[in-house]
Amino acid sequence: MLKSQKLREMAPELDPLRLGTGWKLEDLSKPQIIIESTFGDSHPGSGHLLELVEEARKGIDEAGGYGARYFTTDICDGEAQGHDGINYSLASRDMIANMIEIHANATPFDGGVFIASCDKGMPAHLMGLGRVNIPSIVVTGGVMDAGPDLLTLEQIGMYSAQYERGEISKEKFEFYKHHACPSCGACSFMGTASTMQIMAEALGLTLPGSALLPATSKDLREFAYRAGKQAVWLAKHDLKPRDIVTMKSFENAIMVHAAISGSTNSLLHLPAIAKEFGIEIDSDTFDRLHRGAHYLLDIRPAGRWPAQFFYYAGGVPMIMEQIKSMLHLDVMTVTGKTLGENLEELKQTGYYEKCFKNLEKYGIQREDVIRSFDNAFGTDGSIAILKGNLAPEGAVVKHTVVPKEMFEATLIARPFDCEEDAIAAVLSHKIQPGDAVFIRYEGPQGSGMPEMFYTTEAIASDEKLGASIALITDGRFSGASKGPAIGHVSPEAAQGGPIALVEEGDLIEINIPQRILRICGIHGQKMSEEDIQKVLEERRKHLKPFVSKYQDGVLKIFSEHAVSAMKGGYMK
Q: Would you say the pTM of this structure is higher than 0.85?
């Protein structure tokens, strides 16, 4: 007997309450499927999701079930930039997951369809479905179209810095702002939203080939409809997420992450998702698997093309075909088949031929977007975990977007205790080549772990600084960030980590090949490791205890319970 039918017998109020909500009498005995989405007028990534909800609902009905709509609207990092709103971003992930738990456990359902697009909504839904563990399938909300001349939103930060420096006119800047988001969907670059849609498919929780479709396409709506039907199948067969997702599934996802040069924010999200499945992964897991991994994708911000071209080139299945030798093909998926079986089936159904027709319009080939395994851009993955006396627990860098000049460097520390002061120094040319700009007290327990987006864009858009300085922070970066940016430094400053002890003029060694991030000198003078530790111990005696400016509300709760960024930054 289905769970919903057992609970109907236990709770006689269920039937009248659902009839009062608009259910028909015959619906009560059907498989009951929760349709959870981030639909809302909050941003383009969620504004269109009601269409997908209704398509999923049609599929559920067609398969003999009943779909009930629930909503956990997410916020947009882009709209939250430049003010304290960005501090709520990471916390919102955990709060959405909490609401999904409440929705699914307080009301009986036999299965679920989870629909999201963006960088917190998607990982939150993956966390939530792992936590409630009812038969479930994910629908990704797709990616927006590029604007004129393939303009995409991640370029706006660069154009903003150029405007602030007087390099482009106000009219040109206004044109870019007014045409960067021509449709609904996630931002059209390989940021966190696009990365996490891909991760959902790589984990085996979506229909094959459905991640990162153009949000305006009929195909995406067809996938939502099919997902609704599959949710009923999953409910009838009692195939739950934890029956599907294993450590092998996460290893597959990390290998795909390496192949696409995915967002560094995945190092926050995948460990948090894994925790909800009873699986432990950490930053060292990423570093180990990225070593020797082949990086194949020519999509912005690291590459040339907008994110919609990812699907045109064959999407996640094509990536997996290229790195097949590095994947566990025997893992289960929501189709009820293994990953290997899904990939073979796609070859027989004309999936790739349909995708490639879109490339013909632009006169390019699949290999212009997704390279073959033997023609990779690189063979050392896309991220590295750096450690040393500055980051004993680690720090993350996306080395595929770092200038080669900065792979090994000794820089002069320029510490700031907030992003506003740091970006002002960059834009006013107070930062010079050879500097290491520190932004601290921005970790999970400091201010909620906001993005340092504007500062990274200001640095990367300055040809002189982009190849000669580094940005080092206990905060995080936008998935669109590029340039010499090192984040998630742990322990964070709010916990008294070594980053809090750095002073003006200290020497900072960065060595990406050797995975090193350390203080190698004090006030311009190189010193031994032992002597540096003595200086840091003396400085610690005078370090004032951190006092959060958030003394109530969500951010107080989050900061008090968040674990280290290198463990996923989730609330324990």
A: yes
